[in-house]
Amino acid sequence: MAQGTTALFEDEAIDDLPKYRLAQLRGPNNEPVFEAMKAFARRVARETNAPSNAERRRLARQAVRDAEKKPQPPVPEFDDECIAALQSLLALSPRSALDRAVTMFRKQVSERPRHCRHSGCGTIGHYPMLYAP
Q: Whole-angstrom Cα distance, residue 5 to residue 21?
């Protein structure tokens, strides 16, 4: 039987070199995990903290610090038209709502310029990013 597991490793180092410890290990629906998964997570922690991976740990810590300093783009708010469209979708049956959402998405995609590839234009690949607050 396969088991999906989430492991949380925390940086507990005092000096410049991070050292990670297994802080939490949970299975699906926050259930406890099998002993085999616990052993695997301990092995991952040992490998991660191995001296041969010291430079990788240092780079990972620096990447996290850099990401924390980077300003986050504002999340667009829904306008009245968008709110009305969402409310109409919520009033429909799940199948009807899906059909209508796909139709609206296709219309939105067809109205977007096809050449935008730079960051900040609201497209990934040629498809608009959908934001929700």
A: 16
**Looking up tokens 């999340």, which residue turns up?**
75
Cβ 54 vs Cβ 43: under 8 Å? no
* Residue 18: burial class (beta carbons within 10 Å; 0-12, 13-18, 19+): buried
The answer to whether the CB of 20 falls within 8 A of the CB of 48 is yes
Give the tokens for residue 7.
Answer: 């492991």
CA distances to 7, 17, 104, 106, 132 from 111, rounded to whole Å, are 42, 50, 11, 9, 20
First to last CA, the chain: 37
pLDDT tens for each residue of 65-118: 898 898 888 887 888 888 888 888 788 777 777 787 777 777 766 655 554 444
CA proximity to 132, closest of 64, 75, 63, 53: 75
SS3 at position 57: helix
